[in-house]
Amino acid sequence: MQSILDIDILPAQHSSVSTMAHVFINSFDLDGSVKLMYTKDEIVPIIQEILHDYMDDDAIQFRLAVARDTRRLAGWMSFGVIPALGRVPEFAFNEMTSWAAQKLIHGYASDYRYPLAAQLEDRSRHGQSLHMLRHRLVINTIVTDPEYRRLGVAGKLLRCAVDRARSNDWAIWVQTPTVYEGLFWRNGFHDVGTFGLDLNAFKPPEEVAMGVHGRQLGIQTWRQMKLGSRAESLLERAIAETAEAEGTRGHVPNPRSTSPPSSTSANTSTQ
Fold it and tell me: Which Gene3D superfamilies match (predicted)?
């Protein structure tokens, strides 16, 4: 059993951007959707641009996990801080992977990569509108250098967001591929939605034309999860108790339940 890495959690600086981008592009080897949306080489300058753009914005919080023995960057995270009132950057509501893809293609709907990036963006925003109050934190990304995986780095980074949320009694939202969901289950999140996308539908045109002779990517599944605030937990408990008391007298619906969004993506702004 591997030991937990001794790390320091520090605020990010502009001088860290290059290393942060390098860690980011090496962290999604299990995420097939990322490989469809961009290559490592083309996305590096986009990630660097995003980091520089929002590094000094209070609505986006970046945290670094630095190994104490080597002072190497073991991982980093960002989360959006969305208050009840006031405007915040659109990035605060979104996941870094799909946001970076949108910036790369400049929102051009004619680009074959647009539907996948927009679909992920829309799903997250729709889920937040159903399950979250206005004031909340949104996990934009948590990434770990492959050399430091399974050493507790991501968990310590996530605690930064959890501590911030609990100090304000806010909830936290994340939309994540199911291959990464264990981190959030272990830290008290619960799922509020699940959806799958057939990645074969988002392949480049030349691969689509090959039909069954091309790559077969299969269906990838995402989990929408939240860590509720104390106020929300009390409300959900009251709803459950009311439903139980009603018994056979009638069904008490969950006020937040609704049908899932259409698979057709709209061009709205988007873990």
Answer: 3.40.630.30
Confirm if 181 and 223 have CB atoms less than 8 A apart. Answer: yes
* Separation of alpha carbons 233 and 235, rounded Å: 5
The helix (H) or strand (E) run that includes residue 159 is helix 153-168
Q: Are 200 and 217 in contact (CB under 8 A)?
A: yes
Go through 202-222 and write b for each residue having 16 or more CB atoms within 10 A of its CB, e for each that does not.
bbeeebeeeeeeeeebeebeb
Q: Strand 136-144 and strand 73-82: pairing?
A: antiparallel
Torsion of CA 120, 122, 123, 126, to 10 degrees: 160
pTM: 0.83
CA angle 254, 258, 259 (to 5 degrees): 145
Q: Tell me the chain's radius of gyration from C-alpha atoms.
A: 19
Instruction: Point out the residues of the chain with pLDDT beneath 70.
Output: 1-2, 208-214, 235-237, 248-271
3-class secondary-structure state, position 195: strand
SS3 state of residue 46: helix
Q: What pLDDT does 234 receive? A: 72
If phi > 0 it is left, if psi is from -120 to 50 it is alpha, else beta; for residue 229 that is beta
